[in-house]
Amino acid sequence: MALVSNSNTVGAKLSTAEPTLTGLPPVASKPEGKNGVPHRLTGGALLAHKVLESEKRLLAPGQKIIIVPAGRSNDGSRNHVKIQVGNTSSDSSDGKSTPPRRSTNKLRKSQMARSCTGLRPPSLKSLQNHDGSWASIAVPDLGANPNHIKPLSDVVSVRSLASIGMGSTDGKKLTIRRVPTSPSELLNIANPTTLLDDDDLSSCSSFTGSLSLTNGHYRPKRDHWANKLQFILACVGYSVGIGNLWRFPYLSYKSGGGVFLLPYFLILCVCGIPMLYMELAIGQFTRRGPIGALSQICPLLKGAGLASAVVSFFMSTYYNVIIAYALYYFFTAFRASEPWTDCDNKWNTADCWHPEINKSRPFISQAPAEEFFDRKVLQLSEGLESPEDIRWELAACLFFAWILVYFAIWRSVQSSGRVLYVTATLPFILVVAFLGRSLSLEGAEKGLEYFFKPRWELLFSSKVWVNAVAQNFNSIGIAFGSVISFASYNRYANQILVDTLTVSFINGVMSLIVGVFAFSTIGNIAMEHHTSVENVITDGPGLIFVVYPQAIAKMPFANFWAVLFFFMLLCLGLNSQFAIVEVVVTSLQDGFPHWIKRHLVCREILVLVVCCISFVLGLPNITKGGIYFFQLIDHYAVTNSIIYIALFEVIAVSWLYGVNRLSENVHHMTNRYPSMYFRFCWNIAAPFLIASVCIFNLIDYEPPTYSSNNGLYHYPVWAEAMGVCLTVCILMCVPALAVEVIAKTEGNTFFEKLMKSIKPRLENIEQKNGIHEKVASVTVEGDELKELTTLIECKLSPEIARALKQNHQNTEIVK
Fold first, then answer.
1. At what angle do helices 558-591 and 426-439 cross, to 10 degrees?
2. Most buried among 51, 355, 411, 527, by the most CB within 10 A?
């Protein structure tokens, strides 16, 4: 009896002329070919394949198929051929195998040729000692004894194998449709309980390695988080970023203090958590970034995914500037005396005020920390009209920040996951430490009273609710694409509900902790300056680099705490920047895989190109007028755009794709349906709430401003017009791609094309008449063949197993 253990990829061509299994024992195969490997079967048997010697040399490492023919070769010995299975290149028209064009395949071929020699076969007796119903076996690893045979688990019945069929082929495209199976069986296929995990075989740093095929394009197979903790740390690290340290306190101040907490947490429960659950679901199910996921879920609105990627790209250009500020302060904090604590420096003016020197002029003077940030770090110009020179000290810090980002994400989640153990855990410890210290500061109770005391008259203000939605989206990362990208690296059966609740809970708690820390510090500064909280708090980076350093300077061992604080800022900023750049890189990989494979070869070069472009585009932010440009891009490209992108996204998923379909997808992955609460939020609450916020955001539009030692700066009309055009260009991605999709969709009328463009295009899972089917596509382009396959293990029915055992006929079980 000949047995085969199939791994994730079959390294050979499939024949379209082969009939399917009819429930009868297969007939004898043709004489064996080279190395004792049987040729394809010729009766009413399973679809088989012929492993050619030339194909063996092309097989990639890390994946294996074990073929054990029961017959004897010409030398009378039984053969056990262990083949490393991976990417092959074939020409379907003439049946000949052609090596891939990359020069790296020469090394691969020589390595694989050596791996196919010197292997000893297991005895037939050892096979017969196992239950005869098992039709597949596996050797644990390459270093194990080849005689050690272990049966695989019971996953798919022979009825499934009987329905393997072929579509027609014209030499360019070959479609294989396999098995109507139950959802539970498909779950086991995606996450088999065997020695071989299909997820484990899909990591590939280079584009010349294992690849998946989607809609005729090449796409690198997804890496995976090493464990769930890395994924949780990535999501939490992104949500609790530097923005939380200034946006949440400032929006609380603008929205009535404690009254802001009520709409914030209400929207978190009604919109934030359900939207996070939805994005995790579509990312994990499609295993794509925002563009690829929405192009499968709803092709008509895939432009929302592109808009998310564009927003993340703009954000990557200026967000690293904050990390550059943190690096500058971090290195400066090692000086014996902190330069932001006194007025004896060359950049200080006559208006510099220190409470120990002069307590009578707080309203007309400036604190040393404020002058250090404006006059030393930024060397602030008069406005956007006069950007002046680049601050080369900041340029060096920005360059160093991009080096940190590059080496953290160049290997995808394999590298960033390890970095997160430090950058995502240490800030939480430090924030709690600073919280305890800030509560002991004199005047802290004044700030806390302002934070928790509600002004109920503002509860019915639309601006309060708009701010609550904006903070939820900015904090959790809704519609930025980061959550979808992170989830695409999950294993297929990962329990996303647990992840959703964990991330949301930690984010909510950390928001409260940050708020208490911020207002305790602000209360101390307000008391010292003999002023109100309103006169101390400010928007933007000034809150971090002006207010907080003043409070830290009054702590014992101030230099030590300052170093820790700015290192915490560095970690928080890097966590967010990892996610932002990952969205851009993942979107490019999903959107242009073939071009990237041909011109950039590997992910490392792609990440380098993205980092270099973002660094160059970020240089205007570190000129003497760069902070004005920073605020303008942040307001129009991110804050204003993201709410409308979220609206398009929720319409695409909840209404056009459908809540019922999404629930089936979640059940298919986790064996658990979403609750009625989540379905209600997806279908009704979230869409209408986001739509209302979009309307009020237009009605209550406020142009951006910037407050500095030069006074309140109002942007010129041309700058506001440029910002509005930037927002429109980002949002135009949605209708532009919708027109393109409709134009390329087949149909006789516009309505027919429109309906087809709404239909999902999921190439890996389809649902037909309540039955899930796994579909694999094989497209041949020139001399290259890529396969999208799934691990299939089988256990024969007792009747067929007995017939096979009695007749000892050769059987070859393949995908």
1. 140
2. 51
Nearest to 606 by CA among 759, 440, 406: 406
Instruction: Give 527-549 pLDDT, tens digit per residue.
Output: 887 778 877 777 778 788 988 88
Which CATH number is 219-736's, of 3.10.690.10, 3.20.20.30, 1.20.1740.10, 2.40.30.40?
Answer: 1.20.1740.10
Q: Which of 65-69, 216-220, 398-402 has the lowest mean pLDDT?
A: 65-69
Contacts of 655 (CB under 8 A, 6+ apart): 683, 687
* Sole residue written with tokens 């999404």: 662
Determine the distance from the C-alpha atom of residue 417 to the mean position of all C-alpha atoms in its chain, rounded to a whole number. Answer: 12
Tokens 């953290």, residue located: 408
Q: Average pLDDT of 221-247? A: 85
Binding residue per annotation — 440? Answer: no
240 is in an annotated binding site: yes
Q: How far is the C-alpha of 799 from the C-alpha of 319, rounded, in Å? A: 65
Residue 14 carries which DSSP code?
-
3-class SS of residue 38: strand
0.85 cut: is pTM over it?
Answer: no
707 annotated binding-site participant? no
- What lies within 8 Å, CB to CB, of 320 at 6+ separation is 398, 401, 402, 405, 573, 577, 614, 615, 618
Least reliable range by pLDDT among 5-9, 503-507, 548-552, 748-752: 5-9
Per-residue DSSP letter, 257: B
Residue 616 scores a pLDDT above 60: yes
Q: Which amino acid, residue 200? A: D
Question: Average pLDDT of 407-432?
Answer: 85
Joined tokens for residue 159: 């009825």
126 is in an annotated binding site: no
Instruction: Determine which helix (DSSP H) or strand (DSSP E) holds 84, and give its type and residue range.
Output: strand 81-84
Q: Is 530 helix (H, G, I), strand (E, B) or coil?
A: coil
Where do the domains of the chain lie? 3-215+768-807, 219-736
Helical packing angle, 242-254 and 462-476, nearest 10°: 170
Residue 507 annotated in ligand binding: yes
Q: Does 160 appear as a known binding residue?
A: no
Question: Exposure pattern of 308-343 as b/e (b: 16+ CB <10 Å)?
Answer: bbbbbbbbbbbbbbbbbbbbbbbebbeeeebbbbbb
Radius of gyration of the chain from its Cα atoms, rounded to whole angstroms: 31
| Predicted local confidence at residue 525, as pLDDT | 84
- Which helix H or strand E contains 291, and what residues bound it? helix 290-297
**pLDDT(331) > 90:** yes
Structure tokens at 709: 């030692």
Place of tokens 């006169």: 535
Of 600, 259, 648, 321, the closest CA to residue 455 belongs to: 259
- Inter-CA distances, 154 with 20, 46, 115, 138, 791, Å: 21, 18, 29, 13, 13
- For 634, the token pair is 């942040």
Q: Which of 258-267, 589-598, 625-634 is the least confident region?
A: 589-598
CA nearest neighbour of 61 among 5, 136, 118, 9: 9
Token pair in block for residue 222: 């997804």
Q: Is 810 annotated as a binding residue?
A: no
